[in-house]
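A quick aside before the break. I want you to see a complete sequence-to-structure record at least once, exactly as it would be stored in a machine-readable document. Don't worry about memorizing anything.
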Amino acid sequence: MKNFLKILSTTLLLSFYACSDNCDGVECGPGVCDDGTCQCPDGYEGDACEIISNSVYYGEYSVVDATCGTTNNTTIIETITIAARPNGNPTEINLTAASSSITSTIDGTIINGEIEAEGTFSSFTLGVSGSFSDNDNFEATLSGAGLICTGVTFKK
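That is the input. The structure line, written in tokens, reads:
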């Protein structure tokens, strides 16, 4: 009987330690706890997935270098403003592009520092695609209405 009680108590003790949850009390916001560590979904980072990754890119950018255009269309995008989309998806953005006479907001994404956006700008579809070199600068290709501008640099 003593051996049975020793075996039973040892089994219960081992079961308790084997079944302990390293995630007990760990808050991961939109993420998932895995063995005590938060695994964040795309667009979130931080110990508790509390930081929206793209928030470092939000703000207004001015064109630094843009020497492009065609004889039919010399619209130069002078500023681009990047803001969060109100839908709550952290990888989706609203990109507001402005020339001297036109301002329009188009939908886009930023994933791992890569920006992609496309939408109606005046009477044509504007495409913006590029990469952030840091939190304050990005280089893009602008396309639309028969014009393609590559290597256009924007700075906060």
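Two observations worth writing down. Confidence is low (pLDDT under 50) at residues 12-18, 70-74. The chain is about 10% helix and 50% strand. We'll return to this after the break.
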